[in-house]
# Entry
Amino acid sequence: MKMSKMFFLLLCFAANVFAESAEKKTRVTERQAYSQRAASAPGKTLYVDIYQANITILGESQNEIVAEAAVELSSADPDLVKEFFSQTQLVLEPYRQGFRVALQSPKDKYERRSDSGFRRLMNLIFEGNTEGFSMSTELRVRVPSSQALIVENKYGDIRIDEVNGALQVDNSSGEVMIERCAGSLNLKNNYAGAEVRDFKGSVSISNSSGAVTVSNISGDTRIENSYKPVRFEKIGGGLTIDSQSSEVTGANVGGDCNITSSYKPISVAQVGGKLTINGQSCSVTVSSARQDVWIESSYHPIRVDSVAGALKIVGQSSPVTVNVVAKDASILTSYHGIAVQKVGGILSIDGNSCEVTVGEVKKDVTILSSYKTIRVENIGGNLQIDGSSCSVMADGVGGNVNITNSYKYVVLKRTAGSIEVRGDSSPIEVSQIEKLPAGSRINLMTTYKPVTLALPAAAAVQISARTEYGKIRSDFPVYLNNDEDGKAIKMELGNGNTLVRLETSGDIILRKE
Amino acid sequence: MNCAFYQKYELGEMDERDFTLHLPACSECQNLVAQDTKILALAKNLRQPVAAPLLWAKIENSLRAEQQRRRRLRWLNFQERSWAIWRIAAVLLVAAGLGAYFLFKPQPNESRLLAGAALEQVEKKEREYAAAIAELERTALPQMAKLDIELMLLYRDRLETIEAQIVRCKETLATNPGNAHIRRYLLAALQDKKETLRELLQLAG
# Structure
């Protein structure tokens, strides 16, 4: 019995040894912790100089720097792991105007040195092993909350929380998160997201091929990036975004906002300063801008809601929709619809082959288009339209009307000033005239198509109408005056303050309303 | 390895219910499950359809077939490597007799390193991914000439940027092959390249 117990224990021991040796043949993963601390002082800068590490830096009330690193190694050779750990140290030392924290390991030396002999030796260690030698580092640093930082890293995530100094972060291929900090931030990263939240001060971020998110920044913010989305919210100062092929979305900017991007949508809301958007082939959506807005884009829709200043849109083949602009608005685009409602100042539209719909403009409106319908309602000032092959329908114009078009209908209702329509093969209908000011004129001229004018019964006008081939019909008494070129009439109503001239080669109809 | 439950579960010797009951109490099994989840998540990136349907279908089929074979292969590997049986047996015996020794032995947790089979699997996926991208590249790059000049320059710049990132990641992985963080960024760059080539084909198509 005693022997069998002994045999059992021996078997256990042998099995354990066997198991351990098998484990050694495959791989060992070990972790070692390092720690350093040093007293700091205001005005000092901490340099964090590390490679392939996940770094967390926390600002605290104490006046010292505490650095803790956990290094994890994986290798098929346990002796190599032990040797590596024995030659690795966490350094926290005086450096330039402050301190430097760095992890000094054989690998670190290998990465940094260019000496070929040394590299060859290290290659034997790192690359000669078919199983590979792998390493991962976690660095956690606690600093005084007023600490200035310069952090350099690659292939690791960085998080900085509650540090109020000049912050400079240079990372590559690792997520960066800066939270609840103050001072100034200069952040460079690439190929991974960068996020800054609750920052008191100015922020500058350059992130090539990486997404950028900023929120609740009290100062000016500048962002450069490419290919990945930019999101912003609650920027107290000005905002400048210079992106390439990035979607840009955000709201609530206190100062001026300048956005440049291409090929991806841009959406901005609640801007306190001037808003400038330059988006090549971008769809653009803007709402609630408190000052002037300037937008340039192409090929995709542009939508603007609620601008307290002036608006200028330069689009190319972009459909444009605008609602509520307090001051002047100017829109240039082509081939797609333009819809504008509620403009407090002058509206100017240049839309080659665009269907145009305009409503509620307090001052003058000028529209240039072609081939598509133009509809205008409730204009306080003058209306001028040049629309080759456009149907024109205007209802409610407080000032003078001047329209040039061809081939399609011109229908005018509820005008209150002079009217001049020069059509080419365009039927013209004018009715429900609300006012004919003293000295005003009505000139309706076209070819081949009828001209219809409805006048109030009490209108004070001098009418001269002439047609080449058509008929003249009138609800008012007229004097017929045929000449060599066709038929003409003249008539005068009231004191004849307004001169009316009607010319066409088609029919002329004068109706009493 | 103290616990053989995960291996038993993987080999079908333990049913899912028992393993699920055991899992919350065993950090070792939790780590193995987490590692499997991580690998599957990495592999998942490879399965998005691209404009070269036959090529990707081929890859997807091979991935599926590989998954189906996985248990059988494990069993075969298990048989081939008899030391593994001894190891499990030894660990069970030692756990019974000398449990305390292993109980107090420090174990790394939440490892950020890929090793052994996990690393091999990820490397294999990367190779498959890169091969598929090369195929897609052969189709897509000649189409670039059809694009508007500015768009063409943009895509050229973008592909160059991605390629530089892939090269950097590979160089870094040469000396740190098991670092999961760098592997993740290499896969992200490969995926980015695939997406960009797909976009390019769609635009030129």
